[in-house]
Fold each of these.
Amino acid sequence: MEEKIRELLVYIGENPDREGLVETPARVLRSWQEIFAGYHQDAKEVFTVFENTDNCDQIVLLKDVEFYSMCEHHMLPFYGKMHIAYLPDKKIVGISKLARLADVYTRRLQIQERIGEQITSDMMQYLSPKGAACVIEGIHLCMRMRGVTKQNSLMVTSSLKGMFLEDGVKDELMKLLK
């Protein structure tokens, strides 16, 4: 792979043998191991669940979870924050596990719309809550650095499942997000 990266450097007009670039292929590979670590993680293994012995039945919301991902269309970064919520039923989850679940899916080539769906689908499958929600606010460098070059654009997506599709519950979630 290092040789392929050297070829890319030549393709863009660089000299891979100049002082600042000699180690770049190896550095790129090491960074990709971290950036794309989600391919080697299983979402099911992220969940540590506990019995809901206190019968918690209100919205559990983890706000402002920062994320970084790579656009699968241009291989450019997009980043921002997400808000992950669930309505407990018989189980609750360690709250840090929601942030770890976000990493499983953001550390891959992605589109923002898919990330929210993957997170809420896994929550419904492995946690069995009454509802799951993920709202993502993303800044896409493929929109800012190239193409339409819209510097102030912010993409917002949501994935709502279960009771979060009901107006009253959805309204309460949106108020908590403000």
Amino acid sequence: MTAFTSGHDVIRRILLATDLSARCDRALDRALALARETRAHLVIVHAFEEATPPSFSHATEVAPSWRAPPDAAEIAKEHIRRGLHADVMDVVENATVLVMEGEPDDVIERVVATEGIDLIVTGIAREGVFAKGPVILGRTVEKLLRRLGVPILIVRNRPRGPYTHILATTDFSDASANALQVALSFFPDRTLHLLHAFEVPHPARMTDLSRQIESFRTTLSTDLAAFVNSTVLPEEARRRIVGLVEYGKPAQLVREYVRDRGADLVVLGTRGRSAMLEALIGSTAKSILQTLPCDALVVRGPLQRMPRER
């Protein structure tokens, strides 16, 4: 059984996936802050499509001197460095900046494998002007979640400091247990609020609802304690968990908790490798991401469970 590790031993190399848009500045700031906090090495990756060769009719045109020879990778790399703030150059100068041709998910997957990445940081997808709703994850992130076991931090808000109020959700599944382990190991000095949301199936009468809610809450609070105890965690980490068992729809409860209590990070566990997003992360997790007003850490991967007593 692998020992539980935390802090600098867990996050050693962070990958920032950027499309150079203004929205990705927030992801950049968060990646830089995490790199400083954990003393991790930062790898900045930008993927671009292969340039279309010039047509024959323009082949004999003489290009200006600053375009000869054309080097899209170097131009993009310089663009990245110019866009970084002067006060973060100490981190950037030590970072690895990779500008590569290819589909973003293919490029990122290769870099994750070759660079030994522990955490991917990215921004939210662009929102179309005429879209009915925001595209929360985007095609690239959805593909990465299907193909990679590395946690992905989706950054929505501009960082105002380290994450201070972290909420994790659990449905008592292995996926949510793994997410709990990762969150506690990534943030070894933070309290983690662990929420289990429940609904009462087919209440007999509305007058009985309050009594049924309290009965479910009592039972599920015991289940939550058992869930935490069955997950491989040091006692120090267990003491940092604050359990919450609440009646209501998970997506709505998470959104209200973030709004009312000021949580700045929500941790979600994912399931499987299905091509469908609903099957990939579960309809509950997808609903949460669609309405979440803060950053999200989406986790998929191996799980450590306490051995059963013989």
Amino acid sequence: MKISYAVIAAALSVSTNALADATRPDSHAPISVMGDHVHQAGEFMFSYRFMTMSMQGNLDGSSDISAQEIVTSQANRFANPPIMPPTLRVVPTKMTMNMHMLGMMYAPDDRVTLMGMLNYSEKEMDHVTFAGPMGVSRLGEFTTKSSGIGDTTVAALVKLGGSHEHAWHATLGISLPTGSIDETDTILTPMGTQLSPRLPYPMQLGSGTYDLLSGLTYAGRENAWGWGAQWRSTFRLGENDEAYRLGDEHKLQGWVSYLVNPSLSVSARLAYYDRGNIDGIDPRIALPVQTADPDRQAVERVDVGLGINFLVPTERYRVAFEVNFPLSQDLDGPQLETDWYVTLGVQFTP
């Protein structure tokens, strides 16, 4: 399940004084880009981001697949008649996720900026259950929910070099396993009973592992135009307490911005996102639904984002917005497809 997606990792950025000019609305990248800039010695910055994502309908690879096709053609890896049916019998139809992110940056000197981020997620997934071990008779619908603190990220942003108009940076950080991986909720089984098992992987709140964060960022600017590119990866550093680890994540993105006036800039962004399947399996997640299968979690997606940055006249607050849509998706499916996601943020430098 493409949820979230990874919205809370840190990346490294480098900047000259010109590129770090906080009096321009385009001194930061689009709001969906994390860790895009550094600060001068002694500076603080606080930020709040709200991200909401909508997913609806299923893809197998890049092709649409209906709920009826899923329950008649997709094998259930947990099949064990008569307890477990041979094919999937529960199909997710829609998922929404809201994430609140609090960040802080502090530069102990001109070369290094420290960054930390906390997040709180709210997830909701709608399902349809099909009756019995086979057929396309719908038994009913149900919704599962989970919410809570996610994993916490900390990173060092170190300047690598640059000039008046160009700058580079690279990241080294870690994600701490503060998010829950044992969330439960009530489901409707194909036999018409209600149980409260451990929820499948996309509905959990964290990875359960310490994860290495790394990245490289480039930024440039000339007159009213700005541009940049960033690579960011998350590497899982072992297996969690439930005998699995999430797939590694990689993101490559580039953006361009234009300064409309001293208080307003607009931007466009193109991003490639890749996530691997899960290695291992939680023995308590064994259900006839695609989200319980570790081999149905991989994602390749290309997104386009359109954004706007507004600098409040005091030059201490920046308000930013970006809306994103997938251009292409290739999923180890069936999986829910991403329809869109939106990020709204406020950044404050005291």
